[in-house]
Give the backbone structure.
Amino acid sequence: METQKNTITSIFQSNTAKMMLVGMLTLVLLIPLEFVKNLILERSQRQEEVKTEINDKWGKSVYFYGPILKIPYTNFEETVSINEKTKESVKEKKVFTSYAYFFPETLQAKANVSTKVLNRNNYESAVFNSAMQFDGHYVQPDFSSRDIADENIQWDKATIVVQTTNLKSIKNEVKIRLGNSDYTFEPVYSGNANDSTESLETGYIDLKKQLALGAKFHFDITYNGSKQIKMVPIGKTTQVAMQSNWASPSFTGNFLPDDKTKQITAKGFKANWKILHINRAFAQQVFDTLPNLSPFAFGVDFVIPVDQYQQNERAAKYGFLVIGLTFLIFFLIQSISKISIHIFQYTMIGLALIMFYTLLISITEHSSFSTAYMIAAIAVVLMISLYSIAILKNRKFPMFIGASLSVLYSFIYIIIQLENYALMVGSIGLFMILGAIMYCSRKIDWSK
């Protein structure tokens, strides 16, 4: 009986049994680690909600498409019906008004975008004020493709239309100078719930008179906005110059700026686009209704590249690695020094490692990620090192543990900061860590 008890005791005290217990504990600790990840996700979602509230009040994304000549013309439709009494065919001629839309021959746009970050409690959103100037000219509209007679064209009822978003955040009265006359834009209710754009339209223009004067136009428009500015290159030749104090622009859409003139510095950026009509798949004139040209839009995203919650989320993804490597270090020290470490002590160490992430996210919300990471790492490394002195009964191994954890947290911080080389650096680092563990464990007798 005594021999059986000794056998059972020796089995549970073997390296294999201890390794299995530590492995099971590592898996169990993934549960609170998952709770921490959910907390980060919840805070991140809350930030998105606050961003939406800030942007709704300040101004949303800006999408611009214009100015476009809108010319009404008289259209005729002939229908044939059968008279029920006489059984003779009766022709009827219906008269109705249709519209033709003509894009400018040239369009030059200049945009000066001033950005800033608005804060509410612990959350922030990037917003901007954009002062935009548009110049260009129209050529004589050509109705020959539809065989529309000149007498059916209502030249004196032409208007100019702009399709845009974010009307409520326009900060100036929008007037267009065409020739030597000024025309004020007014909002037009489209009534189309599926169309996210809104219309601005001038009053009637005597177009023949203005075309005789050259039909050059100029107008200014100023927006408060957030997230992005996008424009459609409707000019036969479209040139756009944009400058801003935003240091991390993300150029988006169907066209990229000219690499030769593009400048991005810590103080902001300058970018220029030149787009020809042959570069996009739509004509300079449209009949009946304006199409959805958003797939041809281009512009800039003004968003914070990697926010604090993304960095916290990336850090938490390495939680399993940190717990596993830390437990492995303690297990190797236990195996080499023959010092017994209880499973409860492993549990306390694991919980301390998980507390790192709760400290990190809570401090980040009141400081920068780098500062929060340093404070949380120092606190956890000191706590585990001091606890190790009590467990291991000396200072040699705790100093090694403290140094190892410091290197591990520094390594993970470097990976988080990297973007393009994160996978390569992480793979090389893990390969070196594995090699070090293999070297340190090469003389351990695992049969005991």
User: Anything to note?
Assistant: The CA atoms of residues 64 and 231 lie 5 Å apart. The longest strand covers residues 62-82.
